[in-house]
Design a protein that fits this description.
Elements: H1 2-25, E1 28-32, E2 48-49, H2 52-59, E3 63-74, E4 80-87, E5 108-113, H3 114-120, E6 127-133, E7 139-150, H4 155-158, E8 161-165, H5 166-173, E9 178-179, E10 181-184, E11 197-201, H6 202-205, H7 207-244, H8 247-255, H9 260-296, E12 298-299, E13 314-315, H10 321-346, H11 351-356
Parallel strand pairs: 4-8, 5-7
Antiparallel strand pairs: 1-10, 1-11, 2-9, 3-4, 3-6, 3-10, 5-8, 6-7, 12-13
Helix pairs in contact: 1-7, 7-10, 9-10
C-alpha cells in the first residue's frame, strides 16, 4: 500500500514535470524585469525590444518569444477576460500547435485550449470578437476565428488564454519587435546576463509543483503511520502470544545455561526471520499486482483537471529502487523492534517459574 501510494505520487510528479516542460516552461525562461505572472496589472509595462542575443537565438529556433497582454472575448454576447498571447507559428520549443496560425482567413486566426473552449462555449470554426488595449492605452476590437482547439494536461497553458500570431499581436498593440518573455528550448547555452531580462531556470519554474508534491507526501505520511501502527500492533501481539506460549522452552534454555541476552537475541532473530519471510511473500504476490497497476494506471475523476494543477487523465505509478528498498527496510526494522520488546520481557522470568509454565 505504501509503495503503491508513493509510486502514484512519483508518477504524477514525473508526468507533471514532463508535461509542463513540453507545454509551458521549456528548459527555462527569460522574463522581462517587470513581468509578474501573478499580477496582471504589470503586463502593460512588461514588454520590450528583443535583445540582440535573444534575437539571434530566436532566428535559430532554440528560443521562442511570447508577447502577452490583457484582453476580453465576447462569445455569444457574453464578456470574459483573458490573456492574449502572441507566439511564432513555426516555433518548435513548446508543444502549442501554433503552426495552425498560418491558416489564411478573413478573420484573425487564433488557437485556444480545451478549457478555454469549454468556458467560452467555442468550437473550431467559430468566429467571435475580442478587445484589447494597445501601448497608448487605446481600446480596439476585431473578429477572430478559432482554427484549432488543443488538449493538454497543463491548465496554465490554456485556461483563459488565446494564442495569436506574434506579428499580428505586435501590430495590434503597436509594439514592434517586442516580447514579454522567452521560452528556452534544448541546446541553448548562455552564461551572460541580459540587461532588463531575468533568467528563470527550470527548477525555479517548477517550484510550486514540487512543493505541492512534498505537501501531498507529508499528508500521505499520516495514513502510513496509522497503517504502520496497526501492523506493529498485530506483529507485537503475535510475538507476545508466541513467546508466552513457549515459557517452558525459554525456562529450559535458561536452566541449561543460556544467558538472558542470548535468549533475547534468539527470539529477536526469529522475529527478523519472520520479517524477511513476510517481505519475500509480499514480493512474490505484490510484484505482479504493482506491475499490473503500473500498466493500467489510475484514471482520475472527471473535473480533476479543473483544479488548476498539471494532472493527466490517467496517472501511471513509478516504483523506484529507492522507494522499494527503503520501504522494505523500514518494515524490517520496525518488525525487529516489536520482536525485541516481548522477548526482553520474558527473559526476566525466573527459570523455575518459566519451566512450571507460570504466567507472569
Amino acid at each position: 500500500m505504501m509503495i503503491w501510494h508513493y509510486g502514484l505520487l512519483d508518477g504524477w510528479n514525473e508526468q507533471a514535470n514532463r508535461d509542463m516542460q513540453a507545454w509551458e516552461v521549456g528548459n527555462g525562461q527569460y522574463w522581462h524585469q517587470n513581468y509578474d505572472p501573478y499580477d496582471f496589472f504589470t503586463l502593460e509595462e512588461s514588454h520590450a525590444k528583443i535583445p540582440e542575443i535573444l534575437q539571434k537565438a530566436t532566428s535559430e529556433g532554440i528560443v521562442t518569444p511570447i508577447l502577452i497582454t490583457q484582453g476580453s472575448v465576447y462569445p455569444d454576447g457574453r464578456i470574459q477576460s483573458m490573456l492574449l498571447k502572441g507566439i511564432i507559428p513555426n516555433q518548435k520549443v513548446i508543444a502549442i500547435p501554433s503552426d495552425e496560425l498560418n491558416i489564411k482567413s478573413e478573420e484573425i486566426p487564433v488557437v485556444i485550449g480545451r478549457r478555454m473552449a469549454k468556458n467560452c462555449k467555442l468550437k473550431e470554426g467559430d468566429v467571435t470578437t475580442i478587445r484589447w488595449r494597445d501601448v497608448n492605452r487605446t481600446f480596439d476590437a476585431a473578429e477572430v476565428k478559432v482554427v484549432k482547439i488543443f488538449n493538454c494536461n497543463v491548465p496554465n497553458v490554456d485556461a483563459g488564454q488565446m494564442y495569436i500570431h506574434i506579428k499580428k499581436l505586435r501590430e495590434m498593440m503597436q509594439a514592434p519587435d517586442e516580447a514579454t518573455m522567452f521560452i528556452i528550448g534544448e541546446d541553448f547555452e548562455m552564461n551572460e546576463s541580459i540587461s532588463g531580462w531575468e533568467y528563470k531556470d527550470f527548477n525555479f519554474l517548477m517550484t510550486e509543483m514540487n512543493e505541492m508534491m512534498k505537501m501531498k507526501k507529508v499528508g500521505g505520511s499520516f495514513m502510513y503511520i496509522i497503517l504502520m501502527l496497526l501492523a506493529m500492533l498485530a506483529i507485537f501481539d503475535t510475538q507476545v502470544l508466541s513467546i508466552f506460549r513457549r515459557q517452558k522452552e525459554i525456562g529450559t534454555y535458561i536452566a541449561m545455561g543460556m544467558t538472558r541476552k542470548q535468549v533475547v537475541s534468539l527470539f529477536t532473530v526469529e522475529g527478523a526471520m519472520h520479517a524477511i519471510l513476510a517481505v519475500m511473500l509480499i514480493a512474490i504476490f505484490g510484484t505482479p499486482l504493482l506491475l499490473w497497476l503500473m500498466s493500467i494506471g489510475m484514471t482520475m475523476p472527471a473535473g480533476s483537471d479543473d483544479m488548476g494543477i498539471a494532472i493527466a487523465e490517467t496517472i501511471y505509478p513509478v516504483y523506484g529502487a529507492g522507494l522499494i528498498i527503503g520501504t522494505s527496510l523500514l518494515v524490517f526494522v520496525i518488525t525487529l523492534i516489536v520482536s525485541y520488546l516481548p522477548a526482553r520481557k520474558i527473559s526476566k522470568m525466573k527459570p523455575t517459574d518459566a519451566i512450571k509454565g507460570k504466567i507472569q
